[in-house]
Write a structure and sequence with these properties.
- By secondary structure, the protein is of the alpha/beta class.
- It has a domain of 124 residues: Nitrogenase molybdenum iron protein domain (Rossmann fold, 3-Layer(aba) Sandwich), CATH 3.40.50.1980.
- It has 21 helices and 14 strands.
- Strand 13, helix 19 and strand 14 form a beta-alpha-beta unit.
- The N and C termini lie far apart (48 Å).
- Bound molecules: FE-MO-S cluster.
- FE-MO-S cluster binds next to helix 3 and helix 11.
- The site of FE-MO-S cluster has 15 residues, from helix 3 and helix 11.
Length: 537
């Protein structure tokens, strides 16, 4: 049974009426009432957060170092900047990794920084960076080092790329720099793009000796939060699908170097890695398709899609066997938990893909997503890739380098002919990403880069049973008597991807949605007197 429909139009009007008119005009375009798949509305996204608004976004450096390169275990990540920028690189990582052996390199739990001081800001930090690189090689003997620039590096003009070139010569290993200063772009999304460019230019394609296999894919945009990649790898292996490279959950340098030997790129998180997929298609002839291994049904769908691409009856039969086997536990869990959760409501505000993907898991439990939004998704992540040509490129996006790759004549081969692609599309295989809004109910709210104020108002008005976001929101929301599930770190639970992950998620949601503890907490507005004030002029 659904909760009573609260008037979303009125909610939007009320929230906007509390903002200064200039701000309201801008926010108005970022709060959209979904109108069903036939009438996808335009939403404003990937624009600067209005100063003064409490956003949940991160920075470009977070997207480049933290998200895309961070999960890789044997590329030494050296942060060039003051030590504060490395706080989140040290012991707070949510990514897991499994080195081949006890002696295999694994730098994931280290925090490497040049620890810039005032004098380096005044006189330049390049000498210190070179020293740090030498020291890193001496101690850790890595095969590759990535240098990550933080804000002051860009402000004072240290040339990390020149240092990287020089030190590559001197030290004889692959060293590459990222100009991912935190202020680039409007969010961590810029950092994803910069990371994609760097990997593409300096790493992908460096080694032609990829793993052998009959059905070879790369998994793009899967970062092994809570062990998700382990579960996906387990499923793929069971099906007989070879994963050449993972970008970048549980990955190694050599996986990236050999990625061009795969026959298909599948994308989990479209936002963070679509650039690399497109560039690899042009340079090497590897097609890409969107998949989603969050949700048992969507995992099954994704496996079938991969099998269809390869068009091999044996693979298809094996995939069906695996799905049937895996679904036994899933169905058993749903039979017990769905009656306890059906009709409950949720709201999801996460990054640039999970606010969409996790709706699948809630659907499987019969729960209703009332509102969802990305922190930094672009219009295509909401409305589907067909809108890309109509997206206005502003100064913040122009700031980020756009690579224009060409065919690598020696190694290019077209894996998928145009005719075959047409055939597959006619058979219902979707290559493109259709975005979040198509999958949402008519009348649901879609909010980009939600502000703290809007979040409080949503909870106050709609009283969801579960709220999904991150650590910044967690305790504020729980003090309002609503359980919060962190979808960035999984509250250190998980995995939630794949079939076993789905079962974990159902259990965890049942646990937080059906405990009575939250009912003992009174929301602040229920106990405190609220003083309302107006401008006198
Ligand atoms: Fe992609 Fe991510 Fe996400 Fe993301 Fe992120 Fe993340 Fe996320 Mo936190 S790459 S967009 S920048 S799926 S760190 S692993 S959970 S906001 S929804």
């Amino acid at each position: 049974m659904k909760k009573e429909k609260v008037d979303v139009v009125r909610w939007k009007e009320e929230v906007l009426s509390k903002l200064p008119s200039k701000v309201a005009k801008k926010r108005e375009k970022q709060i959209v009432i979904n109108d069903g798949p036939e009438n996808i509305k335009v939403i404003q996204a990937n624009v600067r957060t209005i100063p003064g608004i409490i956003t949940q976004r991160g920075c470009s450096y977070a997207g480049c170092k933290g998200v895309v390169l961070g999960p890789s275990r044997d590329i030494l990540n050296l942060v060039h900047g003051p030590i504060g920028c490395s706080f989140y690189a040290w012991l707070t990582r949510r990514n897991q990794t499994r080195p081949e052996s006890e002696t295999s390199p694994n730098f994931i739990n280290y925090c490497m920084s040049t620890d810039m001081q005032d004098t380096n800001i005044v006189f330049g930090g390049e000498i210190k960076l070179k020293q740090a690189l030498r020291e890193a090689v001496e101690i850790f003997k890595p095969k590759a080092i990535g240098i990550f620039s933080t804000c002051p590096v860009g402000l004072i003009g240290d040339d990390v790329h020149a240092v990287a070139r020089e030190m590559k010569e001197e030290l004889g290993i692959n060293i590459f720099g990222f100009s991912c200063e935190g202020y680039k772009g409007v969010s961590q999304s810029a950092g994803h793009h910069i990371a994609n460019n760097g990997l593409f230019k300096h790493v992908v394609g460096n080694d032609d000796n990829g793993k052998p296999g009959k059905f070879k894919i790369n998994m793009l945009g899967e970062y092994n939060i809570g062990g998700d990649a382990f579960e996906i790898e387990r499923i793929l292996e069971k099906c007989g699908i070879t994963m050449i490279a993972s970008f970048s959950g549980n990955s190694t340098l050599n996986q990236f170097e050999t990625a061009h030997t795969a026959d298909l790129n599948v994308i989990m998180c479209h936002r963070s890695i679509n650039y690399l997929a497109e560039m690899m298609e042009v340079k090497f002839g590897i097609p890409w398709m969107k998949v989603n291994f969050v949700g048992a049904e969507s995992s099954a769908k994704s496996l079938r899609k991969i099998a269809q691409y390869f068009g091999n009856p044996e693979l298809s039969a094996r995939v069906e066997e695996v799905i049937a086997e895996e679904m036994v536990a899933v169905k058993k869990s749903i039979a017990v938990l769905r009656p306890r959760l059906e009709g409950k409501t949720t709201m999801l505000f996460v990054g640039g893909s999970r606010a969409h993907h996790y709706q699948e898991l809630f659907n499987e439990l019969g729960m209703v997503t009332l509102v969802a939004g990305y922190e930094f998704g672009h219009r295509d992540d909401y409305e589907g890739r067909r809108v890309i040509p109509s997206i206005v490129v502003d100064a913040d996006s122009r700031n980020i380098e756009e690579l224009h790759p060409v065919k690598d004549e020696a190694r290019y081969h077209q894996r998928l002919s145009n005719e075959r692609k047409e055939e597959l599309i006619a058979d219902g295989v979707e290559f493109d990403y259709e975005g979040m809004m198509t999958d949402m109910e008519k009348g649901a709210l879609v909010i980009d880069d939600i502000s703290h104020y809007e979040m409080e108002k949503l909870i106050e008005t709609f009283h969801p049973d579960v709220f999904c976001a991150g650590i910044k929101e967690k305790y504020c929301v729980q003090k309002m008597g609503i359980p919060l599930k962190q979808l960035h770190s999984y509250d250190y639970g998980g995995p939630y991807a794949g079939f076993e992950g789905a079962v974990n998620f159902y259990k965890d949601i049942d646990m937080i949605a059906n405990t009575s503890i939250w009912k003992l907490i009174k929301a602040p507005w229920a106990v405190e007197e609220v003083v309302e004030a107006e401008y006198a002029f």
